[in-house]
Amino acid sequence: MRYSSRREAILEVLRNTKEHPDADTVYEKVREKIPNISLGTVYRNLRELGESGELNTLETEDGSTHFDADTSRHAHFVCKGCGKIGDLFGYGDVADALEHAGYKVECVKTVVYGLCPECARKQKDCDPSLS
Ligand code: ZN
Ligand code: MN
Fold this sequence. Notes:
This protein is an alpha+beta fold. The chain has two domains: about 1-65, Orthogonal Bundle (Arc Repressor Mutant, subunit A), CATH 1.10.10.10; about 70-130, Ferric-uptake regulator, C-terminal dimerisarion domain (Dna Ligase, domain 1, 2-Layer Sandwich). About 40% of the residues lie in helices and about 15% in strands. The chain has helices at about 5-15, 25-30, 40-50, 95-100, 115-125; strands spanning about 55-60, 65-70, 75-80, 85-90, 110-115. The strands form two sheets. The protein has a three-stranded mixed beta sheet, with no helix packed on it. A two-stranded antiparallel ribbon has the order 1-2. The longest helix is centred in the first third of the chain and has 13 residues, at about 5-15. Manganese (II) ion binds near residues 20, 68 and 70.
């Protein structure tokens, strides 16, 4: 297995999901295709792909790093109920305004925390004082 095929398999896993997995989850998925790949190889490739800008990295409050093959400018929402990480598009306005004013924006890492609609509804159902 050539180095580039492993790299390609890792990218493929991330292109096929919108769930923003962490390195361990990527490793589990890549192993379905390349059973003998090591966790270290997956970590190293993810780091390199992040550094080269081929992948978006997202550090969350709990100290974990998540990966995203979608490198377009977008923000993320992290649900504190179920842990789901969702994409928020159309929030590049701040960066656009800065660039318009002559700033050179390298990346935008906006992470919003709260409850997704499903978890917000569940919480409301459990606490009658909120309804
Ligand atoms: Zn949720
Ligand atoms: Mn994303």
